[in-house]
Write a structure and sequence with these properties.
By secondary structure, this protein is mainly alpha-helical. Helices cover 67% and strands 0% of the residues. The chain contains six helices and no strands.
C-alpha cells in the first residue's frame, strides 16, 4: 500500500466509515491520532519518523483492527520517499491522512 493513490483511497474510505459511524476507532487509534494531531498543530510537516514514533507508543489492544496502523505505516514509508511524497499524488495522500487524523483526534472517546 505504498502507492500514494492507494493510501489516499484508504484514508478516504476510513474517513467515510468514521463519519457514518460504521467504524469506531479503539483507544490506541485515538491515542496515535491525537499524538500526530498535536504534532500537526505545530505547523511542521508530518514525517515518517514522527508516525513511527507515535505508533510505537500506542500499542493496540489484542484483537484490534490493523486498518489505521497499516495506513499510517504505509504513509510513513511514502514520506520516507521524498520524490514521491513531494509529488501531487503524494501530497494529496498525506493531506487525506491528516484529515483522517484530525477527525479521529477530535472524536470523543465515546465515539461522538
Amino acid at each position: 500500500m505504498h502507492v500514494a493513490e492507494e493510501i489516499r483511497a484508504e484514508a478516504v474510505a476510513l474517513i467515510d466509515r468514521h463519519a457514518r459511524g460504521a467504524w469506531k476507532p479503539h483507544d490506541a487509534d485515538r491515542r496515535a491520532a491525537v499524538a500526530l494531531f498535536r504534532f500537526l498543530e505545530t505547523g511542521l510537516p508530518l514525517t515518517g519518523e514522527q508516525i513511527r514514533s507515535a505508533l510505537v507508543h500506542t500499542e493496540p489492544p489484542a484483537g484490534a483492527s490493523e486498518g489505521l496502523r497499516a495506513l499510517l505505516r504505509a504513509t510513513a514509508a511514502l514520506l520516507d520517499d521524498t520524490a514521491v511524497a513531494d509529488g501531487p499524488a503524494g501530497r494529496d495522500a498525506v493531506d487525506h491522512v491528516c484529515l483522517l487524523l484530525d477527525a479521529l483526534a477530535l472524536t470523543r472517546p465515546d465515539g461522538t
